[in-house]
Amino acid sequence: MPKNQDPPKHLLSFMSKMESAGLHPFVIDTFAYYYKKIVSGETGLISDRDIRPIASNEVQDSTRLEEYGEAGRNAVKNAVMIKLNGGLGTSMGLTRAKSLLEVKNGKTFLEIILKQTEKRHVKLALMNSFSTHDDTLDTLSKIQPSGRPLLFLQNKFPKVLQENLAPANWPKNPELEWNPPGHGDIYAAIYTSGVLKSLLDKGITYAFISNSDNLGASLDESLLGYFSENRFPFMMEVAPRTPSDVKGGHVARHPDGRLTLRESAQCPKNELSAFRDIKRYRFFNTNNIWINLEALDRLLEKQGIISLPLIRNPKTLDPRDEKSPKVYQIETAMGAAISLFKGAALIQVPLSRFLPVKNSNELLSIRSDRFIFSKENNLVLNPKVRSKIIQIDLDPKYYGKMDLFDERFRHGIPSLMDCESLTIRGDVGFERNVTIKGRVVITNDLKSPAVVKEGTVLDKDVIFN
Prior knowledge:
Blueprint: H1 7-20, H2 25-39, E1 60-61, H3 69-75, E2 79-85, E3 102-104, E4 107-108, H4 109-120, E5 123-128, H5 133-143, E6 150-153, E7 157-158, E8 160-161, E9 178-179, H6 186-192, H7 195-201, E10 206-211, H8 221-229, E11 234-240, E12 250-253, E13 259-262, H9 272-275, E14 283-292, H10 293-303, E15 311-316, E16 326-331, E17 345-348, H11 360-367, E18 371-373, E19 379-381, E20 391-394, H12 396-399, H13 402-408, E21 419-425, E22 428-430, E23 435-436, E24 438-444, E25 450-452, E26 457-458, E27 462-464
Parallel strand pairs: 1-17, 2-5, 2-10, 5-6, 11-17, 20-21, 21-24, 22-25, 23-26, 24-27
Antiparallel strand pairs: 3-4, 7-9, 8-16, 10-14, 11-14, 12-13, 15-16, 18-19
Helix pairs in contact: 1-2, 3-8
């Protein structure tokens, strides 16, 4: 930072900008806390020397919690399921709330979530972003669910110019001057919106929080019972890391014994190989979080803000313009709150509770006959599948955006019940009742689209040329 720079002056400019945008004083104080860290030179990086890996015997196995089922059923009336509903799914070419994407049997994420909570008789709350709120409101007014969910808005932080740590200014699109503060903002958002007080006033003590695009993350009664009976303030669902999970955040411990979460953006570049070592850091955060709302309320009263570890995310001001000014986005991770609660716990869950849809590869698997709905409307793996794990790699040029994906599968999704891996290179469409078995690579070297004909059974590689 230049010696003649005046940090208080910039901070006052940021605070004035946030006040003009109508942001809550709590949010402004939270931003000021992180901004001062950036000014002082903090990067938010967590080095290997500051943490130690988690051993298997430190993590409880969720498959051994049958005894807590009754306690969970009794606690449902005091629980809420909160879904993070702020994503637009722009990477998949979507322009509306991602939760409004049809994902299975003609139903959207939102419709499936509403049905899950209805079956469980549990309250639902949605944290929307400024980008998804109107879409969600409009859809709910059309669906008219029997139990209308509580809605609250994620906050926003001003972007910070890397050059001089001043507020970013972009007159041709002022919205780009702001960034979502990451899902760690949920604690501030639930507090400043009044939803935390409303829930506590109604006797709601336990919150289960997860992403709206993770249909495996339903409220599980045994997990709720285990959480409530042990009076944990905070519990994170984790799963063993696989080679495909090397980029996700992993859990570890500080020397003082506190649990912590390290995201890839918080890892020094020269330690990335250790970060990706799945034998060393064995568990990743599924972003399925359980929190005692009374404990959260006490923490907020004591600290005044939620002081999560900083994520200083370097970006360009306009994500689509590499020549636009370089900025820092101040962000935090929801799971990082595990370090703030004494007595926080980890629980190992099966991968069936981690079924995110981040891209077209994952969507194809979910839409196929590999997955079915249980009586509780939970998405579960079809018991008839040949392999519990499938590797799908669709050519992003022809399947990466939803309109392209839907066009190539407009006659239906192939059966993947007996498929272990599917790779498609080039433009390939599918007619009805196609079955893919084993490990198959489909390549189209032609300049025109190729079509897999109706009723075809593929059990070996195919090249169109």
